């Protein structure tokens, strides 16, 4: 009896692992040609200037609708693409698509588009070549592209990351620290980072209205960022109360479902056109 139960358990357990493993292999196999197969889309989520309520930019967010696997979310495929190195190929696609969006948006000259870079991208030669390629047709790319990197992308090799970020800054690109507060960067590291923007992670914004602790964290982060000369973005704003609170605290830019979910290029362009008419 005992042995049988053990056996069942082992069987069940290994079956679970197999399924997980197969899913991973499936994803990596199909993700490899997702770009060529026209299965990728880049959605845009508006970035709103807190004081004016105007759309001043957008974050580009990758979506994958696989012919074989159906819709797969970035939280599932991005980590796998990072582990396998496939992310470099996806990021090149994101860069090219973003440049194309910038060329075709009815946006004011001050508009900027933020794209997410993984740790591997930040240190890779591929981003150098794709940037050089795009700048040939678009010399002003640097004035319209913001590169978002997470604290964890920097913590793994701070010196190399700082060197690359400095290069990007010298070329005129804006650099943003994404998901701020969830990593382990020290204040000393923050001070050394050549960045222009800090994005407070959604985890601290979500319960802002009811959590005095989160209010303290967000308030002091905004103050610190401003003292370091950085612009502050709050991500994950979902209600009026949080918006009003963040406005009072002089948070510069807001992003969240309260304003808009990530939307298609056409919907975003219509939104911009609508705003320029008011
Ligand atoms: P992220 O860069 O921190 O992007 C913000 C995420 O929060 C997005 O999820 C966005 O849809 C979601 N979000 C925005 N406002 C709200 C809100 O008010 N409430 C809630 N609940 N969520 C909100 P998404 O698009 O699923 O992306 C998840 C993560 O996947 C991103 O986090 C980023 O780390 C990664 N990712 C997405 N696209 C790319 C990409 O092109 N390259 C890389 N390397 N990573 C990407
Ligand atoms: Mg981001
Ligand atoms: Mg984020
Ligand atoms: Mg995130």
TrEMBL record:
It comes from the Bacteria. Residues 24-276 form the EAL domain. This is Diguanylate cyclase (GGDEF) domain-containing protein. It comes from Idiomarina zobellii. The chain holds residues 476 to 753 of 753 of the full protein.
């Amino acid at each position: 009896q005992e042995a049988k139960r053990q056996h069942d358990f082992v069987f069940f357990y290994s079956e679970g692992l197999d399924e997980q493993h197969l899913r991973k292999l499936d994803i990596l196999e199909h993700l490899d040609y997702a770009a060529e197969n026209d299965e990728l889309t880049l959605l845009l989520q508006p970035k709103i200037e807190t004081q004016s309520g105007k759309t001043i930019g957008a974050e580009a967010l990758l979506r994958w609708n696989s012919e074989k696997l159906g819709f797969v979310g970035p939280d599932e495929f991005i980590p796998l693409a990072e582990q396998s190195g496939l992310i470099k190929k996806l990021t090149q696609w994101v860069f090219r698509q973003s440049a194309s969006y910038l060329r075709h948006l009815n946006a004011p000259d001050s508009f900027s588009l933020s794209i997410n870079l993984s740790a591997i991208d930040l240190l890779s030669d591929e981003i150098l070549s794709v940037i050089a390629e795009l700048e040939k047709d678009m010399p002003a790319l640097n004035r319209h592209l913001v590169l978002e990197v997470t604290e964890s992308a920097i913590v793994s090799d701070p010196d190399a990351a700082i060197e690359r970020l400095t290069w990007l800054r010298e070329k005129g690109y804006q650099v943003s620290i994404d998901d701020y507060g969830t990593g382990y960067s020290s204040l000393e590291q923050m001070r050394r980072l050549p960045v222009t923007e800090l994005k407070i992670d959604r985890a601290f914004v979500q319960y802002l209205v009811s959590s005095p602790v989160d209010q303290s964290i967000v308030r002091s982060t905004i103050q610190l960022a401003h003292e370091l000369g950085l612009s502050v973005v709050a991500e994950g704003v979902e209600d009026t109360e949080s918006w009003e609170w963040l406005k009072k605290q002089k948070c510069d830019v807001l992003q969240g479902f309260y304003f808009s979910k990530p939307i298609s290029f056409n919907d975003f362009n219509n939104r911009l056109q609508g705003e320029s008419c008011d």
